[in-house]
Task: structure prediction
Amino acid sequence: MNKQEQPGTSRRQFLLSTTAVILLATAGKAGAVIIKGAAPWAPFDYSPPQTLEPGGWYFFTPQEAAAVEAIVERLIPADELSVSGKDAGCAEFIDRQLAGSFGTFERLYMQGPFQAGAPEQGDQSSLVPQQRYRVGLAGLESYCQDTFKQSFASLSADQRDKVLTGLQNGDIALKSIDAKLFFTTILTNTMEGFFADPIYGGNKDMVSWKMLGFPGARYDYRDYVEMHNQKIDLPPLSIAGRPEWKAKG
Amino acid sequence: MATKLPATDVVVIGLGWAGSIIANELTDEGLDVVALERGPWRDTAADFNLASAPDELRYVQRQELMLRTAQNTITARNNPSQTALPMRSWGSFHPGNGTGGAGNHWAGITFRFQPSEFRLRSHLTERYGAAAIPQELVLQDWGTDWTEMEPFYDAFDKITGLSGKAGNLKGEIQQGGNPFEGPRSNEYPTRPLRQPYGPTLFAETARNMGYKPFPVPSALVSEPYTNSLGVTMGPCTFCGFCTNYGCANYSKASAITTILPVLVRKSNFTARTNSEVLRITRDASGKRATGVVFVDTSGQEWEQPAELVVVTAFTFENVRLMLLSGIGTPYDPRTNTGTTGRNYAYQTANGVQLFFDDKNFNPFIGGGAVGMGIDEFNNDNFDHSGLGFFGGGSIRVTPIGAAPINNRPVPPGTPSWGSEWKRQTVKNYLSNMSIGCEASSYTTRNNYLSLDPTYNDHLGRPLLRLTFDFPENDLKMAQYCTDKVGEIAKAMGPRQIVKSPSKGHWNTVPYQSSHVVGGFVMGADPKTSSVNKYLQSWDVPNVFVVGASAFPQNPGYNPTGTVGALSFKAANAIRTLYLKSPGALVQA
Result:
């Protein structure tokens, strides 16, 4: 559990064992913490990332998952440079993001009134990401059934590209959601999944980092900073290490 | 009903740079200080652990260290005729949250403002005549000067261990430093950082063109450093997980790496985290603050009586708290009266992208404040006669680290997905670089802060409403300075350059800088300022309001060095003047 979600929880046991730090009010929700005499510290009380176990879908229905896989496979197609967005795990990434705090925008200001503003005023949609996907994918399915008598996932690569371009340009209208908003959301999340640390379910085997020459979660380039205009062949590293480190046999 | 706590000498609101500096100085004076922090306690070992720190998704995309807009946000509009709407996620700027504040996820670029900036209207009038100042601009002097500021810049250098090279040491211009600096009393505490390829190539070209490149003054220490409080920092490792991230190496100076480790151990200091101040309370006369009321995250309200209230939150919250507490008179742009919310300013963010075929910049190597810059086109360092604008920008190459969710530029016209997108992304990732130009922003009558009439925070209090657009002056300046950057870029011989001056309306969506200033400004005249040169409220003398909210306009430099200096300045005034004779330190 990320301590940001429940401030103070991970430290509560420690807090009770010392007089340096006193918790004012508890009862489920942490209240103010008084810090006096020493910084609050407990062994191994660091703040880990929120991740979900691999395998299965946490948010998507199987039909939604098939559509998302068919989308990310076209946004990031397989070629000589890399595997596809689907094989890189972008759909799993999006599924897990939607199942987490991002899915409900729980950290964002979502009070009304909701009104469309100038483009400079940014995203003013009342739909949170879970709704954007649920409503958007249903709209896409209905558009494809009306137009092609098939699901999006059954369309040819060319047909899928045409539909995606239509969504991106706003040439295709979807029921209940702005097509451009739906497209931008998926494109943004797909790129996040492709380029983020693999701990979140995408970028399998650090495929995008290898493709770019990005060494990943390394933390010290003192030996390399003055190697100007030279290729530095450091294999990438994830927060979780490297697959090659697995002991064989 | 708020539960009353035992009285204290001083209550400090916000434990970022300003609050930590002032709390530390005043506890040294023997005062009992209670500091209230809205966010959580943050600590390098726990929060910025090496095992979790290099995570672009979490810290850049999901903004882990920033204030959550669900806690508090602002509403924004370009002009008074529009309806302001909430910023539902941070874009243009990034307010911080928790101890250390925005100073945890900052880049670390730490300039001093130049001597002429503290008397900008006087300076421009003397050099060009009053008639030359564009009508739309509301420029004013700070009510202080270089001689008063320099010792406090020096104190901030010694807390942070700034790395860099002096350009002007006691009036003598130094080779390799920034010749446009005001005279410094001391060299930078640590030597300049070593430079990656991009900044080196830029500096060589600029030098050949007759400019004077210098290492960007940086709060990333270049060597092991023990600061003026005895806290030890380690050298920057150029990891590139810096801007938007906390530093796991104790290399990037912040309140949590340089001050709080000492401050928290003092017996006359208490911090209360997860505690949000609702308002400053005053006695029946209205001229004296009696303390603050705050609420913790369980919803419990507390009253903290204090002799002295020091407000040290982010610019926006400083101004909002004054509006919510009724301290000062709200600014009204129609009548041009009142000062709370007046003189809000920002900065223009300009740049040029360079695409090469034959170079490898290893763009993942870097840091928020690793790089080289020139200052020939900043502020009033060049002759503005006949140009039709004032101001300018700091031109520099600072590779912040190219983590690839956000840092993979492609030439304009490239599709945003598909095979061609991927081909261009791979082709350009290692071989592109950029030159930035962070430029001044001058105040106008219609750019201001006020309370929103419609949108409330989760406690039911009005959000702060920001009304802002770039003045014509700033857009002309941005075009001029970006063209100058373009000349240097061209001389570096890339395949393609793409110039991006700030254009059109201010847009809340893309990140530009967190350099939001003004709204509770300092000055010599209470008609046009909210605090005097000691950061003391003109209306309620036992309230000091410290931060970038005090800047009457914004030069082409990052604000944190000056926020640090103003914090030492305010603390010094309290220690040496106010405690001897509590009351107004400057007679209006």
About this structure: The longest strand of chain A covers residues 21-23. Confidence is low (pLDDT under 50) at residues 1-29 of chain A. Chain A is about 35% helix and 0% strand. The two ends of chain A are 34 Å apart (CA to CA).
